[in-house]
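As promised in the previous annual report, we have extended the structural survey to additional targets. Below is the entry for Inositol monophosphatase.
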Amino acid sequence: MSSTELSNADLQSILEFTSTLARRAGDIILKGSEAIAASGHVNEKKNPVDLVTEYDVRVEEFVKAEIKNAYPDFQFIGEESYSAGARPDLTDDPTFCVDPIDGTTNFVHGFPFVAVSLGLVYKKRPVLGVIYNPFLDYLYTGIKGHGSYLSKNKQPPQKLPLSTPRPLPSLSQALIAVEWGSDRSQTAAGSKAESFLRLAGDPNHASPVKGGRMAHSLRSMGSAALNFSIVAQGGLDIYWEIGCWAWDVCVRQATERVNPFF
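The corresponding structure token record, generated without further manual editing, is:
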């Protein structure tokens, strides 16, 4: 059993703290992007498309320290420490799950689809999420049962979705987010390429694509957190990906599922 009980008022207070924390972490990300652009230097982890920089670690350590100071009884699971082998059990205690830089490849290239992703899990259920893109100054926030919101350029938050969702009778009218992932082996990349071909291909062309669905288009923005957020916003119809690894499953449940459909 959790030794900490969280009320709705507590969650509202935590949301304010987490939103401010995300913006402060975003400042570190922006400074890191400028430093990388100036030096052209990055470190690598698994392979050239699965990158880590000192800023992933720096942001995570900053966020962890701020949470520890404000909420000393809360638990913490971070993407970088998780990858390094620190994998505490998920308990009923309030637990922050943090991806310090979601979209690291974008980050090192200066492509402005990067986010810090902060989720709160309570009694093993996601209850609060904040996703912040510092390049665009888009702050997505949500508390379970109270909807989700987007604040653009520090303007008052707007409830998501931003417009009434239209009927989607078929994939031919869908804008779909997809991702290539870090496994670029023949098997993995080939399977994804075939799937993407069927999603985008024209089955009625003189040179038809068998099983093609002729989607409006596919988008690959390099950040799962922002893909989920833009679906909730209404800018994407679907986000489809295969091959997520365990960390993605853990953290996405804690962050992106705190969405306007709760």
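Residues 8-162 form a domain with the Fructose-1,6-Bisphosphatase; Chain A, domain 1 fold (CATH 3.30.540.10). Residues 8-39 form the longest helix (32 residues). These points will be discussed at the next consortium meeting with the crystallography subgroup.
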